[in-house]
Design goal:
It contains 16 helices and two strands. It is mainly α. The chain has two domains: 311 residues, no CATH class; 56 residues, no CATH class. Strands 1-2 form a two-stranded antiparallel ribbon. Helix 2 runs parallel beside helix 12, helix 4 runs antiparallel to helix 5 and helix 6 runs antiparallel to helix 9. About 3% of the residues have low confidence.
Length: 430
């Protein structure tokens, strides 16, 4: 039986069991990721991290989960109450939808019922995950707007621009996989990687997807919507108690979704990694083994998220947008053209296509980075620009000579009168 037929025959109790598993998997993995991030970054920064509650601080996430509901909830007087309370739910719900189409494993038997370790295998599963990750930004934007204060609003607007920019690059990176599999179903994508993983065959696509995933999840060094040094805490500045926890958990579950998507698209999904796949024939790709490999790969991807956060400083906003629009998107387009030529022209070898693609990428990179910016070409530069750094509008710049108020002028006049009188007195004495 095919994957779709097995899933169509699932009884209602098995469907509910899978839903419960996805819910618990998301929450438990998010808690483990929070603990692992605090421990790993503490290790990178030469400090212990959580080590008081339980062995190695393993119970710290549970202690935080118990503590947060009892925190005082403060709602701004200027907030739009309905939208303010609805925004965290809008941010969390789509992340669970994205996990519903991810294949966790192959065919297994659960209480005598043959099924596949996947809730639903849609023909457009790739688009469902992209749509779910995009809808989550509505919760962030509404949270910033409904708070009624300026810093959350700025964080929400930043998040909207960020998701739009990097969603395009992420979608273009996935097109390479679609060209090779001729399918949008995630189960077919995994089955197409029985030999060589797409992460090796389509390395530029995986590279672009990895950068876009960090920008999509608002993680450092692309955490501009939060930006503690600039916006206090960003879009969730006015949130406290359980509403803050929902935003916090939604960010980590979104990390899990994009990690699971990356594993499915580029790292063989639930297939056993090399050289384990060579041992015992196909034994380690049957039964419950595939779920083990899938969860292990997802944890590796989450570790890379944490590693990047503890290593790289935050980007400036103009640098961040330049990376997305002038680097990732053009390279994706050139790579898609190269793959299309490879699929259409049978007389060209893979080596020739790769050489042509490499030359095209080098030319594109030179065009993007070596051609001077228009601001450098024109002689009339904005005063106080400081080179390539963004500047405020002219009406917000500090004048070279501060304007004196009427009180200031009167005080200056009195000081001048006193100084003149003192000088005349000295001349009279002499």
């Amino acid at each position: 039986m095919t994957r779709a037929q097995l899933l169509a025959d699932d009884p209602i109790w098995l469907i509910l069991l899978k839903v419960l598993f996805i819910f618990l998997f998301a929450l438990l993995t998010a808690m483990i990721t929070v603990w692992g991030e605090r421990r790993l970054i503490g290790r990178m920064q030469n400090r212990p991290g959580p080590n008081r509650v339980g062995p190695f601080g393993l119970l710290q996430p549970i202690a935080d989960a118990i503590k947060m509901p009892f925190k005082e909830e403060v709602v701004p007087r200027t907030a739009d109450k309905v939208t303010y309370r609805l925004a965290p739910v809008i941010a969390l719900a789509p992340t669970m939808i994205g996990l519903s189409v991810i294949p966790f494993g192959g065919q297994v038997s659960i209480f005598g019922e043959q099924t596949v370790l996947q809730l639903v295998d849609l023909p457009v599963g790739v688009l469902v995950v992209l749509a779910a990750s995009s809808i989550g930004v509505y919760g962030v934007v509404l949270a910033g707007w409904s708070s009624g204060t300026p810093y959350p609003l700025l964080g929400g607007l930043r998040s909207a621009a960020q998701v739009i920019s990097y969603e395009i690059a992420m979608g273009l990176s996935i097109i390479g996989v679609i060209l090779q599999t001729h399918s949008l179903a995630l189960g077919d994508v995994v089955d197409s990687q029985t030999g060589l993983w797409f992460g090796i065959a389509l390395f530029p696509s995986m590279f672009i997807y990895a950068i876009s995933a960090v920008g999509e999840t608002n993680r450092a060094p692309f955490d501009l919507p939060e930006a503690e040094s600039e916006l206090v805490a960003g879009f969730h500045t006015e949130y406290s108690s359980m509403k803050f926890v929902i935003f916090y958990i939604a960010e980590y579950i979104n990390m899990i979704v994009v990690s699971a998507m990356g594993v499915t698209l580029f790292l063989g999904g639930y297939m056993a990694p090399w050289p384990i796949s060579l041992i015992g024939g196909n034994y380690f790709n049957t039964g419950w083994w595939p779920m083990l490999w899938f969860i292990g790969k997802v944890l590796v991807m989450l570790f890379i998220f944490i590693w990047i956060r503890g290593t790289l400083p935050r980007y400036r906003y103009d640098q961040f947008m330049k990376l997305g629009w002038k680097f990732l998107v053009p390279i994706s387009l050139v790579w898609i053209v190269a793959l299309s030529v490879l699929n259409v022209r049978d007389d060209l070898t893979t080596g020739q296509v790769l050489i042509l693609s490499g030359v095209g990428l080098l030319v594109l990179i030179g065009f993007v980075f070596l051609i001077p910016d228009r601001r450098d070409v024109h002689a009339g530069r904005v005063p106080m620009s400081g080179g390539d750094y963004p500047v405020p509008p002219l009406d917000l710049q500090i004048p070279s000579k501060p304007k004196r108020t009427r009180a200031g002028r009167s005080r200056a006049g009195r000081r001048e009168t006193v100084a003149v009188a003192a000088k005349e007195a000295d001349d009279g004495v002499s």
